[in-house]
Design brief:
This protein has helices at about 5-30, 30-35, 70, 130-140, 140-155, 170-180, 210-215, 225-245, 245-250, 250-260, 270-280, 315-325; strands at about 75-85, 95-100, 105-110, 120, 125-130, 165-170, 180-185, 190, 200, 200-205, 265, 290, 295-300, 305-315. By secondary structure, the protein is α+β, with helices and mostly antiparallel strands. The protein has one domain (about 35-325): Aminopeptidase. The strands form five sheets. It has a six-stranded mixed β-sheet with strand order 11-6-1-2-3-12, sandwiched between helices. A two-stranded antiparallel sheet has the order 4-5. The chain is globular. Belongs to the LytR/CpsA/Psr (LCP) family. Pfam families: LytR_cpsA_psr. InterPro entries: LytR/CpsA/Psr_CW_biosynth, LytR_CpsA_psr. It comes from Paenibacillus segetis.
Length: about 325
């Protein structure tokens, strides 16, 4: 029986398509991708910086020397930083979120760190954690600010930091507009303090400017800064879902390029970002947890401005217990 050349070509094309799909899966499926990736370690905690309330928990593991079997259960931490910079001015970190990711179990724990959290900074003393970026940036440039923020979070949380993503207001707005905005469901009405606008509880389609206003608003929320941090977590999750919608999948390579233009700095590769977006799109509510770093309000003298300031006073004893669950595998 003679087989037509057209039939052979069709079979070859199908086999190539299946092979390409398997290769794509092997390379980018989250558990596969990060199992075959040498996960970097950017910072490890300096316990000497927690002299007031040392934390007995060990840092998260360094996966660089692990066997393949070990790596199957490995997790890593991503630090998300949002700065208040516009143009080239020195900036504070307005958004600080530590994401603990386990690609095998497909779980993400977001720990929101209030920008007013009181921490011990080298050569400065106990001040607000968002001062780490601006003070180091003024001395050594933008990347010095990034490194100082990474180390400050590593010290506070007593864990390693593996990846980071840093963006500013303008970049954030532009990227949200690039993907056509976000569909957000709000459980609470938000009345913006500095903008003549109200978002009623319910479903909304927000553009870049509106989304930025949402993640910055705290004064009108019933839970204040805690409510703002919850909204920040909501936006992050919605953003990941939106990136992997059918209308955006065909444009994913160009969207990743746009991410790199709008983000100030990151050590995530293109494939890392696609793999993470894939993971977030597939997880359920019980696999995605959000919490705020434990503590309480207080006032203390600040060595930077030479006066008493409002602080979020971290509860290190509570964190020592909670971190076992939040940052463990």
């Amino acid at each position: 029986m003679k087989i037509s050349r057209k039939y052979i070509y069709l079979c070859a094309a199908i086999l190539l398509f299946i092979g390409a799909g398997l290769y794509f899966y092997w390379k980018l499926e989250p558990s596969q991708h990060f199992r075959n990736t040498d996960i970097p370690v950017l910072a490890t905690p300096d316990q000497n910086m927690n002299t007031e309330s040392p934390i007995p928990t060990p840092p998260a593991q360094d996966t660089s020397n692990k066997t393949d079997a070990d790596k199957e259960q490995s997790s890593f931490n991503i630090l998300l930083l949002g700065t208040d910079a516009r143009d080239n001015e020195a900036s504070r970190t307005d958004v600080i979120i530590l994401a603990h990711v386990n690609p095998t179990k497909k779980t993400i724990n977001l720990i929101s760190i209030p920008r007013d959290t009181r921490v011990n900074l080298p050569g400065i003393g106990y001040t607000k954690i968002n001062h780490a970026h601006v003070l180091s940036e003024l001395k050594g440039g933008e990347h010095s600010g990034t490194e100082a923020s990474i180390q400050a979070v590593s010290n506070l949380c007593s864990t390693t930091i593996n990846y980071y993503v840093k963006t500013n207001f303008a970049g954030f707005e532009h990227f949200i507009d690039t993907i056509g905005g976000l569909d957000i469901h709000l459980d609470e009405t938000v009345k913006f303090t500095y903008v003549d606008m109200i978002l009623e509880a319910g479903d909304h389609h927000l553009n870049g400017t509106e989304t930025l206003n949402l993640v910055r608003e705290r004064k009108s929320l019933s839970e204040g800064d805690t409510g703002r941090q919850a909204n920040q977590a909501l936006v992050l999750k919605t953003l990941a879902y939106t990136l992997l919608q059918p209308k955006n999948l065909k444009n994913l390579p160009s969207l990743i390029s746009q991410v790199k233009e709008d983000i100030l700095d990151t050590n995530l590769s293109d494939s890392d970002m696609i793999s993470l977006a894939w993971m977030v799109q597939g997880i359920t509510e019980d696999q995605f947890q959000y919490t705020q770093f434990p503590g309480q309000s207080g006032k203390e003298f600040d060595p930077v401005v030479k006066t008493k300031l409002y602080y979020w006073m971290p509860d290190m004893e509570t964190w020592a217990n909670e971190s076992q669950k939040l940052l463990g595998d």
